[in-house]
# Entry
Amino acid sequence: MSKKELHARQAEAAKRWVTTPHKRDTTVTNTTSATNNTITFKNPKAAQFLVDGKTIPEVNFDVGPSYSGLLPISGAANETRKLFFWFFPPGPQGSADDLIFWTNGGPGCSSLEGFLQENGPISWSLGQAAPTENQFSWTNLSSVLWVEQPVGTGFSQGKPNITNEDELAAQLVGFMAQWLEVFPEMKSKKLYLTGESYAGTYIPYIANFIYTNPTALDLNLTGMWISDPSLSWNVVQEEIPAVDFVHKYENVFSFNQTFMAELDAIADRCNYSGYFDKFVTYPPTGLLPLPGNSTFAARGCDVWDTIFNAAVTINPAFNIYRIFDTFPILWDVLGFPGSFPQAQTPLYFNRTDVKTAIHAPLDVNWEECSNVDVFLRNDDTSLPPALSVLPSVIEKNERTVIVHGLADFILIAEGTRIVIQNMTWGGLQGFQTPIANDSFIVDGVGALGTTHTERGLTYFEVELSGHMVPQFSPKAAFQIMQYLMGFRANP
# Structure
């Protein structure tokens, strides 16, 4: 095959990825069709946050008007704590009836990563020489609000003082209330809370706070997305499934037989071997046990770290967020392309011209993941959400989606399956029927993983994707959001 023919076939295949206009499926309960996608912001206070879409540094295309800057977490006159946001009204195809909120995790990682490398209208991902338009931007669905939170993250201002997720939720909702006073046209919109990684802990607690404080925020919480989420104990989401994960991807890890035998011996000794086949049944036969005596890993049973140390010996570019990466490490405009930081000077959001364009504080040394402890003493004292607030939130949402990239090693999909099968919501424990293989059909692509829906919860697994699903599988992520928002009747 000649290069010319190869490129022609690739170009023809890429046409199947083009997004098409959509409207909300009227067969879905409690949804309405948008009548227009134009929102005019008349509050004079909004003008100070306006960003000219033609003059964003390095971006050689017009992304349209947006709004960014700092707003306080309360209306107190002496409030010093402020969160940084970037808000985009809906694009030409987007609905004016909805608002998507996005946060990254960490704790302490900036949501500007999500904006620039996952689901925003500008895409400047790993290895890209310059930014490009993102045809899978979630602004093609509705308005989107990216927020750097909690206090201590990114450009946010003030001293962190929280110790748990309830306090985090109260501060975020306080910020949202202040934001709605600047953008009152967004009041009463349908709200979709979305985030990834440690935001799998943030988002359920934020949702629970909104449901238990119904007058705190003039928005109608409707649904929730959490991808590659932190939901339970470390031993469940990392340790138990780690050796099985290596066996699944033996050709990627490339460990020798002696080391594989050592891993199997540890798994046997620590009661990880056979755990999935024995306990992850449909329906479950009872609560799933924790192996050993620790919610992290019993002494001598930290097999995840053992695997990681061996993996980076073989492949210095081994990336816990997407295991397919190899050396050399791709350049990243945000300076953090995977397991290892790659320093550039300056990072994109540390450039003075960028800070000026988006009304960010010039004196802040922006980092993708902050070195500041966003929880006092770096200790979040809240229980994992699957053991506390998540079940009741699922019951209150119209739809909840949990999404997991199958090439993610920092949080492993089989661990998320364990979490779901150990969780009770809607009067039953776990999914009652098995998750079918090849059940997630992506338009123009075909089977790209699995999906399963019961009692208001839909679970997705996405093949070829790492930890950041909207980055590594943007078309699949876009389709999942269409489903969450009622633009599709079926996943």
Summary: Confidence is low (pLDDT under 50) at residues 25-36. The longest strand covers residues 95-103.
